[in-house]
UniProtKB/TrEMBL annotation:
<dbReference type="GO" id="GO:0005905">
    <property type="term" value="C:clathrin-coated pit"/>
</dbReference>
<dbReference type="Pfam" id="PF16623">
    <property type="entry name" value="WW_FCH_linker"/>
</dbReference>
<feature type="domain" description="WW">
    <location>
        <begin position="16"/>
        <end position="49"/>
    </location>
</feature>
<feature type="domain" description="F-BAR">
    <location>
        <begin position="114"/>
        <end position="324"/>
    </location>
</feature>
<dbReference type="GO" id="GO:0048268">
    <property type="term" value="P:clathrin coat assembly"/>
</dbReference>
<dbReference type="GO" id="GO:0048812">
    <property type="term" value="P:neuron projection morphogenesis"/>
</dbReference>
<dbReference type="InterPro" id="IPR031160">
    <property type="entry name" value="F_BAR_dom"/>
</dbReference>
<dbReference type="InterPro" id="IPR027267">
    <property type="entry name" value="AH/BAR_dom_sf"/>
</dbReference>
<feature type="region of interest" description="Disordered">
    <location>
        <begin position="42"/>
        <end position="78"/>
    </location>
</feature>
<feature type="coiled-coil region">
    <location>
        <begin position="251"/>
        <end position="285"/>
    </location>
</feature>
<dbReference type="InterPro" id="IPR001202">
    <property type="entry name" value="WW_dom"/>
</dbReference>
<dbReference type="GO" id="GO:0005886">
    <property type="term" value="C:plasma membrane"/>
</dbReference>
<protein>
    <submittedName>
        <fullName>GAS7 protein</fullName>
    </submittedName>
</protein>
<feature type="region of interest" description="Disordered">
    <location>
        <begin position="1"/>
        <end position="21"/>
    </location>
</feature>
<dbReference type="GO" id="GO:0030136">
    <property type="term" value="C:clathrin-coated vesicle"/>
</dbReference>
<dbReference type="GO" id="GO:0072583">
    <property type="term" value="P:clathrin-dependent endocytosis"/>
</dbReference>
<dbReference type="InterPro" id="IPR001060">
    <property type="entry name" value="FCH_dom"/>
</dbReference>
């Protein structure tokens, strides 16, 4: 089903408060991003409307990472009872990037409203032909590019056949121009006949030169491009695979840090309850130790979130912005 456009009122409101040259778009899964039509710069963060205003650092803003909303205030300044992690229910995770459910936000056609674009469906993974395994959006794009490799091979074969035809035609014309039939004719007819045979030889030379041009200026560059394309695709494949693996590892680190923080908070809460039941210097010392561990776990989680945000931004730039 083709994505729906956002309502004119919504689009005017979103773009009306942006700096000149910036446009607001929505991914098919409801993730809003911004594109500078002058520089083709793309960012998840809303551009500042005041010139010269620096962007807020990631650690100081509210971060929404894979459904986990974490305040940018340093963890050691927060009361452990108020620190919580909230996971949005039903948000799909694609390529280790979580997007809001498409039903909660209106969608609009990306880039060119009147044309289809692979970018509109880039993030959405799809089932294979058997309907069992899921194929990633990047794999779909990669297979499409690899089909270009086969097309280049077929084009080169087509040009090679054309070269053979031109060479064979030139050879036959040259052979015909040297035929001795009617060579004894004299007078004006003899001159006209000689001119005809000369024109055949000239035409044979033209076709021979044309076949040579096809070989040097079409076939050879095409084969060279095909060879370089193979190397570039292999390099790009490894690069993007590394980015995806890196993003997935950052996401796993956030999950691990979140669970560790939850455990530290439970431990701190349990020791606090023990202190309320029985006052003891030993219990107070354990509470201080548990509070330090909880603070450290919170700091680790914030660090993992910042690293994940950087990896997600890198992934988006490499996979979408540079392929538009």
């Amino acid at each position: 089903q083709k994505p729906r456009k956002a309502t004119p009122q919504t689009e005017d409101t979103l773009n009306g408060h942006l700096p000149p040259g910036w446009q607001s778009y929505m991914s098919p899964q409801g993730q809003r991003y911004y594109v500078n039509t002058f520089t083709n710069e793309t960012t998840w963060e809303r551009p500042s409307s005041v010139p010269g205003t620096p962007k807020s650092p990631v650690s100081r803003k509210s971060s929404a990472v894979n459904g986990y909303h974490i305040s940018g205030t340093p963890v050691h300044q927060l009361d452990s009872g108020h620190m919580s992690l909230r996971k949005a229910s039903g948000d799909p995770q694609i390529n280790s990037v979580t997007f809001p459910h498409p039903d909660i936000m209106p969608e609009q056609q990306l880039l060119k409203p009147s044309e289809w674009s692979y970018c509109d469906y880039f993030w959405a993974d799809k089932k294979d032909l058997q309907g069992n395994n899921t194929v990633s959006g990047f794999e779909i794009l990669l297979q499409k590019q690899l089909k270009g490799k086969q097309m280049q091979k077929e084009m080169a074969e087509f040009v090679r056949e054309r070269i053979k035809i031109e060479e064979e035609y030139a050879k036959n014309l040259s052979k015909l121009s040297q035929n001795s039939l009617a060579a004894q004719e004299e007078g004006t007819l003899g001159k006209a006949w000689a001119q005809l045979k000369k024109s055949l030889a000239d035409e044979a030379e033209v076709h021979l030169k044309f076949s040579s041009k096809l070989q040097s200026e079409v076939e050879k560059p095409l084969l060279s491009f095909r060879e370089n394309f193979k190397k570039d695709m292999k390099k790009c494949d490894h690069h993007i695979a590394d980015l995806r693996k890196h993003l997935a590892s950052r996401y796993a680190a956030v999950e691990k840090a979140r669970k560790a923080l939850t455990e530290r908070q439970k431990d701190l809460e349990m020791k606090t309850q023990q202190l309320e039941v029985k006052l003891s210097n030993k219990t107070e010392e354990e509470i201080k130790k548990a509070r330090r561990k909880s603070t450290q776990a919170g700091d680790d989680l914030m660090r993992c979130v910042d690293l994940y945000n950087q990896a997600q931004s890198k992934w988006f730039e490499e996979m979408v912005t540079t392929t538009l």
